[in-house]
UniProtKB/TrEMBL annotation:
Provenance organism: Streptomyces cyaneofuscatus
Disordered as annotated region, ranges: 1-21
NCBIfam families per UniProt: aceE
Pfam families linked: PDH_E1_M (PF17831), Transketolase_C_1 (PF22613), Transketolase_N (PF00456)
Cofactor(s), by name: thiamine diphosphate
Protein name: Pyruvate dehydrogenase E1 component
Domain Pyruvate dehydrogenase E1 component middle: 486-708
CDD domains found in the cross-reference section: TPP_E1_EcPDC_like
Length: 890
């Protein structure tokens, strides 16, 4: 709705105007400038006024978008701290070898990417030569999140540095022989080089933010001084469309993470074409980051553009740059100068006049090659501004040409992401452009050669001297010499071994109680990192708030509403709990940073991430793979697990499948404990396996339930079975010697239905059932697969599940609160007749009893299924099945 003169209402209309006459004079002045000098002059004066106001300390909203020019003028660039000629030679060798590596690999059809590093070479080289701290200096060094498709350039640099051989380069993407290189950054495949797996786009930027945040967490908790660690994330402009890429921008600004820099390679192209064909991605990203509170540095144009901007006395050039869409600018880089004169400079008379002052060579230089991201001095200035900026993270928007130096067949072409090789003639053209001393005779065998100036060459000496001054090689992953964590005192575990007596307790609460006790351990208690996405009270964790504290870099600047209560909401600068709000992705990024701190910082941490089971693997499964790739350790806990334990919640909250997803991850050890003592045994064994003398690169997934039940004391001698995945919990007592018999295998909360079914079978049908607790269908399968592999080597190895059930009479019926496929994982190694019950299909909102009856997994349904299996074998009458269904109302 507008007022009578057509002006839109504004928030300013709500503020008192102490001097309306003065306000009118300011408005009249602006109108006069607009009429006399044009709207562009008026806009310029307004922006100058805002800039002056900011400098004077006036609190005004900032502009979200600036002109399409460099943030740092050429005249303001700092002195370049290095030998630019030498660094140009180093970069040339790395460009060559990166392209040669991928092209030579094309013989085997293994693929690779050339154009990304070609565009970003100076973004990396400037950092390696001047900024990126190594791990052999003071502290942990910097954390580098390398853009996945740029990996050939990083390998090329490691080759020049002597860390990789020519044979290894030739085995790029061919790892089976033992001397190969993984396609992308992958710590599990090349653990001495790569720290962070980044090619699953979007996860790198998200993880970088939480890594920078975790660095501060370690410092604020006095665990590790991380003041000299800076996090650098190298990203593509197309990658920024992934929702994870920008999901935590506000967090980074809110917590003032000035130890973090994003470097976004704005070559204006994604995999299939322009990132923003009809728009301008740089301006969009600038507004997005500025709006989130980041410091933005734009490095768009090379020095060749300085002359154009100096000649632009009317602002016409800036206006034209603001309006040309990215796809059109990409086209300029591929067309002749006449086209540029007509379609760019011909847009208005002032530009036509400006173009008359420019030679064709100058226009060609500006539009074909001169980008800020291709000039070391521009990149150096941007990086220096980033590391010196305080109070906010920095994003550098560096404009480049995708495929730069690879020739006209590559540069700015839509298809260059899929182009895997250059011809010999194209390599010779690249050689001339880069000035490399590679003779024609080196091509005689039809293969492009690798190039190296020699181990004692000035280039290699310079490279190594720069890295030595910065703290050693980079990127690099180091396992610091740290002692295994001591095992916690037995007291914490014994509390759960004893059971709960008549008191009912859910296994979720049992886990929380155990961890709370472990956090009191004098040796290892401070190393626990509880992580929860805003559901702590759901899981009964509020008791940790006042004792452990919720981490906040600001502490607690307010008086909490529940301050007078025992379990009040306490935030602290040294708080131990990471309560992330409603972001499972953010909580998982926290977990990854904590789970790999043993390598990143040489400080072993024990993260446990507890979440609403349905919103774990299903929502953030890609990050679970990232965790495995990064060799992370810790406990992931799916609470309120299963498909029927959530009274009234319904199918959108009911998880019957996370164990299936988890089973696909080789590093995940998956358990579905039924009792509190099982939780204790599993956690104790997990601490040994992950943090003991023979530490393994695995993590644990536990599902726990919110259904209160009396917790029994631990029977004698069951620890091995709990860890391996199966043990007999309660043996049936036959009413007579020839009574029909079967084996009931149950996991998690289903053990209670099986125990009730055991009693019904005995009382109503004279059938004896043994009840087994299957703590881990996944570990039983893993062990069986290892036995199968041993058999192929000629070794006889009986699977544990086969051994455990050997000689057990009758058929086997498995039941769980999961889809049948979960227990069916082990069916082929069970010698007895096998059948299963599960919660397949969609759920519904109802009581636990009704939901279990719906899925056919309650005690009565187990009885009917048991009778059906025995009837099939002729051990009970077939009529017993129908009779049982009628008796129990099924």
């Amino acid at each position: 709705m507008t007022d009578p003169v057509g002006k839109l209402p504004s928030e300013l209309d709500q503020l008192p105007d102490r001097d309306p006459e003065e306000t009118a004079e300011w408005a009249a002045s602006l109108d006069a400038v607009t009429q006399a000098a044009g709207p562009h002059r008026a806009a310029y004066l307004m922006r100058r006024s805002l800039q002056h106001a900011e400098g004077a300390g006036l609190a005004l909203p900032k502009l979200l978008e600036t002109d399409y020019i460099n943030s740092i003028p050429t005249a303001a660039e700092p002195a370049f701290d290095g030998d630019l000629e030498m660094e140009s030679k180093i970069t040339a060798w790395n460009r060559w070898n990166a392209a040669a590596m991928v092209t030579r690999g094309a013989r085997y059809g293994v693929g690779g990417h050339i154009a990304t590093f070609a565009s970003a070479a100076w973004l990396y080289e400037t950092g390696f030569n001047h900024f990126f701290r190594g791990k052999e200096g003071d502290g942990s060094g910097d954390q580098l999140y390398i853009q996945g498709h740029a990996s050939p350039g990083i390998y090329a640099r490691a080759f020049l540095d002597g860390r990789l051989s020519e044979q290894q380069l030739d085995n790029f993407r061919q790892e089976s022989g033992g001397e190969g290189l993984p396609s992308y950054p992958h710590p599990r495949r090349l653990p001495w080089l790569w720290e962070f797996p980044t090619v699953s786009m979007g996860l790198g930027p998200l993880s970088a933010i939480y890594q920078a945040r975790f660095n501060r967490y370690l410092a604020n908790r006095s665990i590790k001084d991380t003041a000299n660690s800076h996090v650098w994330a190298f990203l593509g402009d197309g990658e920024m469309d992934e929702p994870e890429s920008t999901a935590a921008l506000a967090l980074a600004a809110r917590e003032q993470l000035d130890n973090l820099t994003f470097v976004i390679n704005c070559n204006l192209q994604r995999l299939d074409g322009p990132v923003r064909a009809n728009f301008r991605v740089v301006q969009e990203l600038e507004a997005q980051f500025r709006g989130a509170g980041w410091n933005v540095v734009k490095t768009l144009w090379g020095n060749a553009w300085d002359e154009l901007f100096q000649l632009d006395t009317t602002g016409a050039l800036l206006r034209r740059l603001r309006e040309v869409p990215d796809a059109q600018f990409q086209t300029y880089a591929t067309r002749d100068v006449a086209y540029i004169r007509e379609h760019f400079f011909g847009a208005e008379p002032a530009l036509v006049e400006l173009a008359k002052l420019l030679t064709d060579a100058k226009i060609a230089e500006c539009f074909y090659t001169s980008r800020g991201g291709h000039e070391a001095r521009k990149v150096y200035a941007a990086y220096k501004a980033a590391v010196e900026h305080k109070g906010a993270p920095t994003v550098i928007l560096a404009q480049t040409v995708k495929g730069y130096t690879l020739g006209k067949g590559f540069e700015s072409k839509n298809a260059n992401h899929q182009m895997k090789k250059l011809s010999i003639d194209e390599f010779k053209g690249m050689r001339e452009l880069l000035g490399l001393p590679i003779p024609d005779s080196a091509f005689e065998d039809g293969l492009v050669p690798y190039g190296h100036p020699g181990a004692d060459s000035p280039e290699v000496r310079y490279l190594q001297e720069r890295r030595a001054a910065l703290g050693g090689p980079a990127p690099a992953r180091r396992l610091h010499a740290s002692a295994p964590l001591p095992q916690p005192e037995e007291r914490a575990f014994k509390a759960l071994y004893k059971g709960s007596g008549k008191q009912e307790m859910a296994t979720t609460m049992a886990f929380v109680r155990l961890v709370k006790d472990l956090m009191r351990d004098k040796e290892t208690g401070k190393r626990w990192v509880p992580i929860v996405p805003d559901e702590a009270r759901t899981f009964g964790m509020e008791s940790l708030f006042p004792s452990a504290g919720i981490y906040s870099p600001l502490g607690q600047t307010y008086d909490p509403v529940d301050r007078d209560q025992l379990m009040y909401y306490k935030e602290a600068k040294d708080g131990q709990i990471l309560n992330e709000g409603i972001t499972e992705a953010g909580a998982m990024a926290d977990f990854i940073a904590a789970a790999t701190s043993y390598a990143t910082h040489g400080e072993t941490m024990i993260p446990f991430y507890i979440f609403y089971s349905m919103f774990g693997w299903q929502r953030t499964g890609d990050q679970m793979w990232q965790l495995a790739d990064q060799l992370g350790k810790g406990f992931i806990v799916g609470a309120t697990a299963g498909r029927t334990t959530l009274t009234g919640e319904g199918l959108q909250h009911a998880d019957g499948h996370s164990h299936l997803i988890a089973a696909t991850n080789p590093a995940s050890l998956n358990y579905d404990p039924a009792f509190a003592y099982e939780v204790a045994v599993i956690v104790k064994d997990g601490l040994r396996r992950m943090y003991g003398p023979d530490a393994e690169d695995v993590f644990y997934y536990l599902t726990v339930y919110n259904e209160p039940k009396p917790q029994p004391a631990m029977p004698e001698g069951v620890e091995e079975g709990i860890v391996k995945g199966l043990y007999r919990f309660r043996e049936g007592t036959p009413a007579k010697a020839d009574a029909p018999r079967l084996q009931l295998l149950a996991s998690g909360t289903a053990i209670h239905w099986a125990l009730e079914a055991q009693e019904l079978l005995a009382a109503d049908w004279g059938v004896t059932a043994d009840v087994w607790s299957a703590t881990s269908w996944g570990e039983l399968r893993r062990d069986a697969l290892e036995a199968d592999e041993a058999l192929l080597r000629g070794e006889v190895q009986v699977p544990y599940v086969t051994q455990a059930l050997s000689g057990a009479p009758g058929p086997v019926l498995a039941v769980s609160d999961w889809m049948r496929q979960v227990p069916d994982q082990i069916s082929q190694w069970v010698e007895q007749d096998w059948s299963s019950l599960g919660t397949d299909g969609f759920g519904l909102s109802d009581t636990r009893a009704a939901a279990r009856r719906h899925f056919g997994v309650d005690a009565q349904s187990i009885v009917v299924a048991s009778l059906a299996q025995l009837a099939k074998r002729g051990e009970v009458p077939a009529s017993a099945v129908k009779e049982a269904r009628e008796r129990y109302g099924l």
